[in-house]
Fold these 4 entries.
Entry 1:
Amino acid sequence: MAIGFSGMTSAQIAVLTSQQLGAFSTADYVALNTEQIRAFTTAQFLTLKTAQVAALTTTSIAALTTNQINSGLTTSQLAALKTAQLASLTTDQIQLGLNTSQIIALTTAQVQNLTTTQLGALTTTQVGALETADVAALKTSQIAALTTDQIQSGLSTAQLAVLTTAQVASGLTSSQVIALNTAQVQSLSSTQIAALSLTNVAALETADVAALKTSQIQALKTAQVAALTTAQVQQGLTTSQIVSLTTGQIQSLLTNQLGALTTTQVGAIETADIAALKTVQVAALTTTQIQQGLSTDQVVALTTAQVANLATSQVASLTSVQIAALETRDLASLTTVQVAVLTTDQIVALTTEQAQALTTAQVVSLSTSQVAALQTADLSSLKTTQVVSLTTAGIAALSSSQIQSLKTSQIAALTTKQVIAITTSNIAALTTVQVSAFTTRQVESLTNPQVAALGTTNVSYLNAGTPIVLDLNGNGISTQSINNGVKFDVFGVGKDVNTGWISGGDGLLVMDRNHDGSVSGGGELFGVGTTLANGDRAGNGYLALAELDSNSDGVINANDANFADLMVWVDGNSDAVSAAPELHSLTSLGITQLDLNAQKSTLEDNGNMVGLVSSYTTADGAQHAMADVWFATNQTTTPAVPAPAAATLPTLTDVVTPAPLTVPVPVQTVQTPETPDLRTQVSSLVDVMSTFDSSGRPLAGDSLPDAPLLEQPGARGAPALVDGLAGMVDALKQFDANGQSLHVPKLTAAASLTTLETKHRKPDVDILANGK
């Protein structure tokens, strides 16, 4: 019968042989007390069967010395320990007793049942000895129990690589993440990276962030990207990592994170990612990031929404190269507030395509310095709608080279206010081609200093020339189209141009300045062809006429020195040749006074502009229309309607009642012309007949009565009898059997004078026909 261990002393147990120890039952080993278990030598422990070791109580296990554990327990014996037995091991037994072989020998179940205290007691060497399967089996609480030293110096990259997502997500603490070295961080799989909590992501050291592989970077969830600190973003992310960020990750960056990026990092953002940035993200970029970070390709990638939401400081920070890189649609998306902050260097950098893309609202918002900075190529590329959007201040700010770069279509598109805003120096810089592009309305709007600045040469290229016209037949100011074939040196430069003209029943105010008995050009009219006393060209006819107001009373009458030198040219045959019989003194027409107090007019007739309107007074006290008319002119236009053939004699109707429409004057009511009584009819008929001598030839020189003389083209100087008779016959055909003119004026003088608001006038008076 076996004796058992119950009666044996420690000394007796220590000398037992392996055969004797093997003879004891498992029940005997269960009965061992702490003193007896400690009496076992390491050699004796080595001979114990696994079943015998497994029979030891937890108290006995806890009583084992570290030497017994380290040198006595075999790996198979240790692997045979039950979870309760293993759990009974003290921290000292584990830390000082277990060797790496024994750690390796532990089963997964045994490792899983180690308490957090026991795990925390493991040395870094012991931790490093844990098999990867055992590491992967650790509970999250056990993972969390590992010290930072165990994490940093104990766990191998292979061990870290087997951590489950649950262990990573819920086990690792932020202090443990901080403890990870770069090699360990790099060993984490993309799945493990994605499992990191937001706190742990923020806990990564900047060096560890910089060590992340691009695959790891791309594995970060958008929330994790947003969790990165500004320090991690600025000091951690490398340019290759920035490049590797997905569009979704880029969009998840917070504004403070974007603002923390270095200019190098900003420059590394892919163009697709730039285009994906939210407007608030773009708005978060600093001016330094924009100016020094964004490449031209990135600027091109900006969307219209992004550009439109840039802060004014950001817009102003763009370099000239960046400005030039903006797509036209992006430039057009800039608000007027943004456009207003563009520097002159940025304006200079605009391409012609960009200039053409500016909206009219943007053009309006340009400051004078910005307009002055526009390159001539950009300015000349502007559409006419853009040109008319320039402010008058902007127009005034243009340099002479800029003005000279404008195309004729742009010149023609200018509003009258813009034309007025052109400085006199720029007016003087206009080329003849540009001057010829001015419309009649534009020419009419030119100020006196502007006309003077044009100079003699450029004045002659205007598309309109102004003389003063007198309504002689009471039907208002009536003109002929430029297409009627009249040519005259209206600008007084010694060169005839195609020009609009008066109708036969009206007259031009003239003064034979060279006393040659004829009107040789615009210099003897009153208009832009007149050279003023100071050598400048007159801006309009009234300015020219005002020089004759010697007593400065605002009217020209007998009290003025040159009143007697003034004449009225009635070009009845519209040949623009002032035959002596066509020149009438003011006295012969009963004209006593010319009013210089002219008012602005917007009337247009047959393409000619009635610019200024006043009146003249006749001896009977009646007032009649007088106007400064801008005749449309063209130096090259071929008349659409040829001049009358030489053999054709103009009829009286062409003189007294012209065919073209009269000037449409805006009035509320227009008086209907009274039917002339018999005395007036007969007087008119007699007046016409008296223009011919007994041979049927037209009278010449001073023998001309107040009625207009009809010159015979083709018979000047030596009229033939037959032509004279034919002229008389044609003239008589203009009256019916009762001596009444067959043509009735279409618009009365009352209508023209309505513009002047005169109180005393005698409308519908034909001065020529009535001889007064």
Note: The mean pLDDT is 85.
Entry 2:
Amino acid sequence: MARFSLGFLIGVVGITQFSYLPSLKLTYILILMSVVLFLFPFFKHYFLSNWSLFFVACCLGFSWSLIIAHHSLSQQLPKKVEGKTLRATGRILTIPENYSGIMHFDFLIQRLETSVSIHYPIIARIKVYFYKNSKRLINLKKGDIWQFTVRLHRPRSFWSPGCFDYQAELFQQKIGATGYVVEKFPVRLIHSENKHYFIDNLHEKITTNVRKILKNYPLLGLINALTTGVRFSITEDQWQVMRGTGTNHLFAISGLHLAFITGIIYGLVRFICCRIPSVVLYIPAPKIASALTLLCAIFYSAIAGFALPTQRALFMLSVFLSAKIVGRHFTNGYSFFFTLLAILMIEPFVVLSASFWLSFFAVFLIFYSISNRLKSFNKWESWCRIQITLSLGLIPLSLLFFHQISWVSFFANLIAIPLIGFIILPLSLFGSLLSLISFRLGSISLILSEHLLEFLWKILRFCSEIPFTQYHSYLSMRWIFIASLIAVLLLLGPKGIPGRWLGFIWALPLFFFEAKGPQQGDVWIHLLDVGQGLASIVRTQHHVLIYDTGPRLTPSFDTGKLVVLPFLQTIGVKKVDLMIISHGDNDHSGGANIILHQIKVDKILSSIPEKLFLKIVGPEKTMDLCKENMHWEWDGINFDILYPPPNDVYEGNNSSCVLKISNHLHSILLVGDIEKKAEDYLVRTKQNKVFSTILVVPHHGSKTSSSITFLNQVQPAYALFSTGFHNRFHFPHQIVLNRYQRLGAKIYNTAAEGAITLKLNALNKKIEVETYYEKNHRFWWD
């Protein structure tokens, strides 16, 4: 079972490494190979007879995932209808969630047509957003059939280093498009089937009761997350505490929560059955306890919405409890690998999820490292050893997926897990269910659990505020990740493994290897993909500059948090020397606040008035005005502010800071959103000073900028556009593109290429260009 499961896993992972999806015809060849390999055990060759099943599994895993991938991609939105106004009829698949005035849900389309009744192929599933919290949204229920007027786009995420691959998540969920309801058109309820969704109605009722009872309590969102899996009420400050202590997994219903609940129920039922002799005469107490525990586990998972981590834990638990019910015994290894294989067969692209790897690797570490030794320890020693194993063993995966680890996570989890698992979680769940019968009695239990959580939260907050408890890194090279995994397996291996001390040597690259950066006289510019906005990072040998920070639309959609900070972590930046906010528009300044609160920034330059600056970043920070003729030098690179003039009246776009960066071979011009007025000033007063090899195109390619006179003076060899995918302004404008093409400039656009990196070498005239799309493209991006 182990070889077959691992082979199937390797086959599935193999397909995810392709930039373009192979033809389905390949499955015929692989199936034929599987048949041939399956026959090898009948021959005498030792290697083939022992490993043929492994290779068969690899072929089958690859073939099965290839078939699923082709099916999922066939259900994506046709490119020809992207951005068009469409009438969609279908069923609401998930319970609508409202966050920051935006309601979203999954929608199963049954009919898709234009206003003139032109029908399009059915897209199985889409994610729909309401951008206004109007009264009509109150009546949206899971299971109801509605007709909406929508505008849809194919899935798209930020293509920048370190960013979460949102497209991979949507592909895994088989979502073929995302879009929003067009408010000016009416919506229509076609048919209500909500009464058939008992569990979902119960889920909604419990969520409503918890909100009513704890509406004035600070940790309402955390209690809701524990009871129903709804996490949109958790604040950014609370997320920060959880990330700082490594406890965010405790507030996402998963196998850990299921294990605590089922363990308590199993022990309680068995205790009661053993006190009733007339019952155990016919059915043994363990079988009764196992059956009731399995039913409760299914019920709790259903209340939690059958999230993927819960599904995996429920499946493994079902194997274990079913074996007890029928009187069979399965080893831990058999249960583990059987569960792994079953989940991969049901949903192969679950391998794109971080939770899949973290949950299975955590269970593997316990079985591999200490399961056979736990009986020799008392309960407290066993608990500490499990925590040490998981805290150390999950370091490589935590750095790979989240780019950070917390040194206090061991102590925080040592306190938090038993307190939440044995007291707060049972009290919260009991109170939420009891509130359906007696609102007052349920309130007592829920309020008590909230007070206990407040006590725990004070400890966690204290731990998160201890300085130097966070280690940030990014496993950008696969060999470092593999080396760290080998280190973990050696150091945490069972007794008897030779050379365990070598694990320390294998771990060295994880903490001491530094990726290559600019040398003396070099300058690298990274234009990040932040959608419709601008964020760029400039690096010299010993300094880092941020020019603009991208937009912030909601607390959860802040490109400073989603794009800029993850990128800084990938390149190992601990401190920023200078942040320039070109002007006050949200698409250039929105991400500044979160960046300034998450990483040390020595100095801020901007042209915006003080009142606007305080509104954007708060009163804790100060700035200097960006003025013409400012100059400094870093590592042999010259930096010059060319605009705006001193004492200039703030005019929004036309007050953008203009920065020129140059070495003795090349130069870069960053101009923000300047328009023709500012361009004419630069041409008139700076003349040859604006001549640059690389130009970050003004105002994203708007017709109000990139005047012919200005471009003739700059003469860029490279024109970099920072625009949003299918942005509503239709940037860059075709007239502007034509101007750059006539100049012979090489054109790059973040909407098409993702993040763009240009490396200017002091010893080489050739400029090295890298695009994130070309380097990291996966088949689900198309």
Note: The two ends are 36 Å apart (CA to CA).
Entry 3:
Amino acid sequence: MPSAVVSSSLSPAKVLLLAVHFATHANIDSLTSLCQLHASTLHEELLLRILLTYLPETIRPDLYVGLLQQVSEKDFQDTNAHAPDPSPVDALAEAEAAKKVKRLHLRSLNGPLIHESLQRDVLSSFLVLRARSIDTETGTSSQLLDLLLPFVHRSSYLCTWISSIVVPYVKKEQAVDSRNSLLQFEALSDAEASIFLLSRQPDMPSTVQPDIDHDLRESFGPWLYNPDRWKEAGPDGGTDIICEGWQELRTWLVSQAASSWPIAVQVLEKWGGIDDVCLSNGLAMKLAKRFQDHCRETYAATTLACVYSIQDTSLECLSRLYNIVARLRVRHAYDEKYESLEEALETLPDLSLHNISTLWQDRTASLAKDNILAPKNLLTSPTAESTRLLLALILSAYILTLHGHPSSVRRVGDLTFLRDTRDQNAVFTKLLWTIEKQASTRDDEYIVWARKRLLWLRGWRDAAASAPQEIDNGTFCAIQRESMDADFLKLMLSSGRMFVAKLMKHHGHSKLLHGANPNKVVLADSVPLGYDLARSLFEDTDYKSLPEETIQEVVHKSALAAFDNATSPDRARGGLKRCDEILRALPATVGPSSAGTKRIRALLKATHALSGYRLVLRAGESVSPVVLRVHSDPISIVGKILAQNPGAYTRLQEFLEMGINIFEAGLPCHSVHLTASSLTTEQLQAHKEVSERRITALCIQAALSEEDFETAYSYVASRLGTQACNASSAAQHVMDDWSWRAALQAGQYVRTERSKKPTHLGTASGNPTIRHLQQRLECLATALRVAPTSELQDILQSFRRCEEQLDSAIKEEATNEAAWDAEADAGRLPGSFDRPLVEEQCLSRTLNASAASRQTDEAPMSLFDLSRATARVAQKNLSIMSGLKSISGDVGSVGQELHDESNQRVRKRDQLREAATGTLVSGVGWLIGANVNPNRTSRGEM
């Protein structure tokens, strides 16, 4: 009997059991034929329940999708060629078949896991349950779409479910091998599902997620299109719209910006938000316009929040951030066209804001992690002002980073809105230092652009075009324009010569010339080297950005900086040469007649004088020029030169010129700064005279230390004596503690075998001892004239001892000459005359031994005048000289007469004059033509 005939005669129980058999063995063709023959028995719901319960999940959906379509359309095709085989149930009795049917326990197509809209659509319910079973049992999520897509348009819910749940799940499962099933994914909350869709592969670094934009476009975006994810807290919608998944995405993006900026930047660059969703496989979904508008606005706010949260300071990151914000402004019609970063660096657009404080009411709260995405946050609200501000901050950060101070957008924001002058100056100073360092390998155009960009940072606009009354709100708003230009002038002056020299060396040429661009140096045949850029910007321009006083101050400070950095005191090279060049860099503004220029030139002369000598202040270290400028007593360096350079004391005039230059440079000469405003012109001149005397004294002491008394004596006689006589009235009131000491030291010098011999005697005594004592007396007399009153007593004691030594030497020479005459008695010779008296010979010899050339009353006026000057000095110090009564018995009567009350004032004056002059005259009476012995007697009788 044909099987078709047999099958058509089967009881309903056996038909049901045969259908279960075919489903269990995945015999889809036989099952289809059976359904055609027994359509009344195997109705749609029963057949779907059999398939759901017994059809293996491993069977590919494309094998039975045709059957499902026939069931859905209730139109089974003629399958006589594939008649079902009833043999599996032929042997069963009807009663046994009925019992087996009762034990089948087919799965229901309804239940709590089926949406209420599918309760009456058994095929849709079957598809949902079947998809879940396949995913749970096999984990082959890739087959789900093969099952579902043919029926995607069967119902609106099924379409939404497939598009917003199954498709995102399948896409994510293909990218990330997770343990979540489709049913578990459906059970996740919106926040949890968002985290799942945004997760990365476990073996991928935290900073890398190359396909994140695809995930958002093909998984997260479609998932958001499910209307069940959107809620409205109020009837008006707008800011009351709530979507946990969308909010979770915004929070995730901000956190990625803070920790893994490449991921956040990739999202912001490549994903356009809710409008950039890929519904593949012919799927189509729409989101309500109010929800789309909400997503567009909040995504723009999220973009701004991410930019503020990124802490990276690389040029790549800042460049990408600039492009993101610039394109956002174009999308929101805040700008007409997109301007690239390169164009912005060239044009430096006007990004100034007049009321910037309203955007930064509470900086800490505005950028706090929990508040940065708040709807009322003015910094992250996508308005024209907030995006303009952020674009200015990004461009500022890029400029700072480009010129050597890496800065994030957040750091630039702090620098801008805190308005801390010290902080801004510190950043600006560091930038200048880096620009100066980089300028050594660049041309002038680099410095010009660096200056232009940094000036732009004051107010985010062209500094020259801004009105004086306008308030700048830029990154360097707390720094004065004049201060910035002054620092740039200082940079140009400090790097002028070094830059040109390196550029010449790099190109192999010796000359440069300005081309068509006056700010760009090109190779050519002739041009003055050095500081033409500074002149073109600050001197040869119609717009004077700096007043002349400021330019002069900057030039002088730069010159002194070059001086301080010099290592050699030679003015023809190194730092001193650059110092001199800087002084001549702006001749029209800083001329040689400037007081500051004169001081620095005097300093250069004084320092250059050191180059001819060996000078070591510390062991193993040669002296540097800055030592002279910062030394508390620079004239003392002359003493060190004299000590380290034998014979240098003979160059007194050079050292005097050095002292004059030290004085004119405004350096301290003897614990008093000569440029002090409290000193008058006369007082300054007095200090200058004292400085000259001090240097003379140092040379005298150096000569004595080298046993050259003759030179020391000549300095005392020709310099100290003359300087003391010609001293101004103001100089007489300035403490001079060096001249009298040097004169006293010379007067106390005792000639030894090592002493240098005089080169000529002139009219002096032929006896070296007497001549030496005469010179010592003259030195002591000079010491008396210039010494303070408190030192006169000690000097007079030295004077008396030297006087006694001179008397003794004269007597000794007279005795020796008398003995010589006695030995060579002329009376023993034939024809001799009578021998003259010995006393007359003694007197004649004594006078010859002295400096007197004739036995007359004529005497050298120098020493006499010297004695009179000494008396004048003593007369000014009556109270001090009253103590001289104890010096010797020769002046004892002076002290006694001072106690006479009736004639006290007149007798004091007369007696002190006689004491001072009498002492000197008695000591050198031989020189003024007086008789020594009678003079002694008269002095003793006083």
Note: The first helix runs from residue 3 to 8.
Entry 4:
Amino acid sequence: MRHIVALVVTLVASSSAALADDHAKCSTHKGLSVMYEPGFEPPVVEDNGLIQPNFVLLSGPWPETASSGAVEPGESFTITYSFVPDGTIIPGTGANEQDAPSNLFATMDANFPGGRFAWQSVFHQVFARYGEMTNINFVFVPDDGASFGISFPFGIPSPGSPGEIGARGDMRISMRPIGAGPLARNYAPTFGGDMTMDSLDVNQFSDPTNNFRKLRNVLFHEIGHGLGLDHVLPQNATKLMEPVLNTAFDGPQEDDLRAIHYLYGDRFESNENGNDYKFLGLQLQHPSVNGTQTLVVEDLALEREDSEDWYGVTVAGSIDGLPGVAIRVEPVGTQYQYSPDEDGAQMQTIDAAAARDLKFELYRRVTASPMTMQLISTIDFNAAGEAEYRPPAVYSLGGLFFIRVFSEDGIDDVQRYRLTVSNAEIAATEPDPSMLLSNATQPIPSGSIVDMPTTEVGQNGGLSLTISNTGQGMLEIDGFTIVGPAGSDYSAFLPSQPIQPGGFGVLSIGFAPTAAGFRAAQLTISTNDPAGDYELTLRATATEPQVGALTASVEGVTVANGATFDLGELELGSEYEVSVDLENVGNANMSVFNTTFLNEDTADFEQLTDLPLALNTGATDTIELLVKPLSEGQKHTTMRMSNNGVQPTYDVVFSYSVVAVELFDDCNSNGVDDATELDSDGNGIIDDCEVVTPPVDEDPIVVDDPGNDDVDNGGNNEVDDNDNIDDDGIDQDIVDNDGDDNNANDNIIDQNDDNDDLDNDNQDDDRDENREEKRSGFCGAGSIGMLTLTMLGLSGTRVRRRRYVA
């Protein structure tokens, strides 16, 4: 059977060769146990064979001590303890852990708040508490620094120097670096009970939370090993001797108390017969003398089979007579889970209040020497787990009375109980509940900080915690409050019904952050637990939503969601391309799935880009539109883009006016239709655009033959011999082509001058060919769309005339 019970070690040299690694080396030996820090997975070890019905023993009780010598079972004795001086060599426990000097004083003095006196006081308090629970007297003594032990082959440590009066304690405490995982380790009683703490975990030991509870519970746990207790399962924050440190409680719990009582009995352990009774110091008198007298004695136990406890009280008479003697014996214990193995297949629920069937008897001493007693009454009416009660009946004689508490069920187990004695009626004690929160197996004691999961703003996160009732009474939850800077971000859901002893419930804490950043609040749960309200500090980090965020722009102008972009003035029947540029400015990828055009003018728009569009963070893309106005007037059309960004729909509203246009001629560019202007000669050309042919000069026009100077030597308007005269005035040059200086016979036309003649007849055709149509673009948002008129002067222009529709 495999268990998570960590490092149950007995030093047996003959088995040392089977050791494998550092922790396994310890785990095969009975006698040395290790406590682990939270979050560390303890090694799996074998059952040590000392499992009791519901607790586990590492070894038997202390066989002898320096002060008391050999110790008999049930005998009260003394254990001394001491702090090992710095520099004392502390052996390693494995091949990879070398010997190292103790540094207890240097480490704790430098790190513990308040210094040496303060940290040693915590140690003394823990030993004193064990003294209150058992019949052991713990005494602090100095330490001479004697050998703490030697490392045998294969890294198996041996116990160090035993306790010696005037030299060192029976249980010696040291500190050295150990490494990740262990907080401390301790030998069993048969190997000296010595302790070594890990100096690397000094921050845990010096943590002042809950009155240094981490240090206190490490010491309680390790001293438990030093007294013979072993680890127990499951690791569910109900037992001190679980392998991993618990801080949900302070000191030994139900299972731990039962185990320590099994080994050593309660603090009155020597009262095993009438001759060794424990006198309670109570003298009962009639209520008329001193009123009601009641004595309640806690932390009592029948530790084993055949155990019995004896208590003595005196009953004194008065003028009003003898008092009655009322006695109540109540079993004490909580319910908790116990498993002998790691997988929990044999999980048991232990009802510690019903482990044994208690009964008691009342005697009156008749003679002191020899001791003789008279039985007055035997009380055994109820079953295991229920109290036995004797009302305040008056006996005819006073004197010394004895109460014997015992069981005859033959069970070798521990039954803790409470004894109440009074001279009046004793009301039944209402059992108390005890609330404990845990997250899985990790306990969350009152006053703890609970870290909630990181959650995006606008989303719902949360955490579910287990509520355990480890008490004997019904746990009733009255309500809760949440206050603090981010109190409105948190919610809580608690069980509506009381939780049975040993039962469980669920606390659900919701977190819906309204802003990013650190968010904290205080949760207070009100119950009937006598320990008071359960308080938790809730804290979490809220992050900005991880979503895409779409922005759009048209023709370079950003258009917010739902805003309007003015396309200006558009012409009926024309087509316009519009680009809608998109960008993902969010912190997550997104997609634009489709577009929808809304309002009455959707037929004017055609989408040219296929969808969907994938937009990674920071990416851009464009949706191209074709606008084709189909009717005149002022219009508005909404383009709705569906997407998975922070705004699931993104609307761009297009506004525009549509006008019809007519073509007309305007040759003089005055904006007036030529058809309405003066045309005196009726030739279709208005007067302003008529072209007048210049008159022909009567004098001959002399045309220079290329390359020759024109010289008139005779002054008769004739050029010299090499020059030619244009006689007919029609701009035809006679050229001496044959070189005989006789121009009369040469009739070749100079082709270079043909193009100089004006063709007035074709003037209208030229004007027609030069007619142009110009279309204006549109302006940006907030601008007025304008159509530019282009005039080409005398060449003539066909322009547009707008026909506006109201």
Note: The longest helix spans residues 115-133.
